[in-house]
Amino acid sequence: MPLLAWLSIAVSVRVAEQSWGPSPSATGPAVPAVINAAGNGSTPLADSALDWELSRADGSVAQGEFGWEYGYISNYTGAGGVFYGWQLNPFHWQQPTDITIYWPKGYPPPEEAWGIGGDSTGCRPPMSWKDGAYPWAQAANDQWAAARRWQSTHTGFVSIEGTVGRYFDSLTGWDAIFAIAVNADELADPVLYSLEIPWNDHTRHEYSIPGIAVTEGDYIVMYVNAVGASAANSYMHLTAAISAVPGVFVPNVVGRPIGDVEQMLLDASLHLGTVSYAFAADPVDQVIGQDPPAGTEAGAGSAVNVQVSLGSELQAADADGDLAVNLQDVALLGAAWVESCGPNAWCGGADVNRDGVVDLKDLQIVAGQWTRRIVP
Fold first, then answer.
1. 156 within a domain of the structure (yes/no)
2. Can you tell me the distance from the alpha carbon of 190 to that of 147, in angstroms, rounded to the nearest whole number?
3. Among 21, 100, 218, 292, which is 20 to 30 Å from 92 by CA?
4. What's phi and psi for 69, nearest 5 deg?
5. What is this structure's pTM?
6. Environment class of residue 287 by beta-carbon count within 10 Å: exposed (0-12), middle (13-18) or buried (19+)?
7. Residue 376 counted as domain residue
8. What is the pLDDT of residues 227-270, one digit of tens each?
9. Do both 252 and 241 map to the same domain?
10. Are residues 82 and 181 in the same domain?
């Protein structure tokens, strides 16, 4: 059977086995439990739930108490742009207002729910300018992200951890995105971490962002925005605890086998972040680059990203390790076609470029080295 015909059969079989469905996706550092549990000499600086309770203990709450401010970030340029960017919000539930808050039966009313230790809208009180929905949007350039921010009293490194998720949807749910940034005034500003929450996801998600460099006066900004051009009436929980963590120096892991690196970083109170791969003259599985560089000071618990050698393209194309690029290698790819692969085995070598899936990119590498042999 011709090579491409054989491969097309393998592809069709594997594609038929795939299943799809909504799932949350996060970008930003994921922190091992060992890092969080260790403490790393951290010092608590702020806690959203505790600080809210302390601020309302005297019967009223003011913007800026314990460093917290509540508001929204909008990309709306209409009305002369007066609502654009970061804006403080009045506490609607504490004063007369003509704004209607849509609240479903069976849930505690706002004046009770927003006094609970968790966050029923994520930023008690409601942070949307219109009706308390969180977030709100009616066009790609008319988004109003519910936001809270904390002004740092610390210069150095901090960690942030907490939970985020839906409290309820008073109407149809919408896809939302949770993000954390430093000194963000606009929705287009870069973020340190983001988590997309599908419309039907009511899970309470834990998040942790270690080793963020801040100076006194910086704002740590947390917001929930619409994904796309529509959102309304999705009320959210959001809690955040911020701690100062000590600075540590990043060790040199270049030239070391990737299998040794994770423990080296843990010993230095750091953790392994993103691992990428590239063809190089260096031995297979040897680290050829790192970020941050060796000797850099970083916050305890933060990530070190590394690049690892795949060896030559010829070495990688020999998927089954028999020192020749031939039909056996193609058969190995076909058996694992469109399969997701992990770093433990890389689908038995079929994920030639180690990008996490066996696909046409791997086949192209094999084709480029077709019938070549490796001389020991």
1. yes
2. 15
3. 218
4. -125, 145
5. 0.71
6. buried
7. no
8. 877 776 677 778 899 999 999 999 999 999 999 999 999 999 99
9. no
10. yes
The domain of 269 spans 247-309
Q: Could you tell me which of 308, 307, 312, 256 has the C-alpha nearest to residue 281?
A: 312
* pLDDT (average), residues 164-172: 71
> Dihedral (C-alpha) 210, 213, 124, 23: value to the nearest 10 degrees?
-40
Question: How far is C-alpha 232 from the chain's CA centre?
Answer: 23
Number of domains composing the chain: 3
Whether 111 and 196 share a structural domain: yes
How remote is the C-alpha of 298 from its chain's centroid? 19
Cβ-Cβ contacts under 8 Å for 119 (sequence gap 6 or more): 48, 49, 52, 236, 237, 238, 239
Of 218, 245, 272, which one is at a domain's C-terminal end? 245
Q: What is the 3-state secondary structure (H, E, C) of the chain?
A: CCHHHHHHHHHHHHHHCCCCCCCCEEECCCCCHHHHHHCCCCEEEEEHHHHHHHHCCCCCCCCCHHHEEEEEEECCCCHHHCCCEEEECCCHHHCCCCCCCCCCCCCCCHHHHCCCCCCCCCCCCCCCCCCCCCCEEEECCEEEEEEEEEECCCCEEEEEEEEEEEEEECCCCCCEEEEEEECCCCCCCCCCEEEEECCCCCCCEEEEEEEEEECCCCEEEEEEEECCCCECCEEEEEEEEEEEECEEECCCCCCCEHHHHHHHHHHCCCEEEEEEEECCCCCCCEEEEEECCCCCEEECCCEEEEEEECCCHHHHHCCCCCCECCHHHHHHHHHCCCCECCCCCCHHHCCCCCCCECCHHHHHHHHHCCCCECCC
Shared domain check, 103 and 189:
yes
Q: What is the pLDDT of residues 113-150, one digit of tens each?
A: 554 433 333 344 444 333 344 577 888 888 888 888 99
Backbone angles phi, psi at 319, to 5 degrees: -65, -35
Tell me which of 191, 216, 245 is where a domain ends: 245
What's the one-letter identity of residue 273? G
d(C-alpha 183, C-alpha 190), whole Å? 10
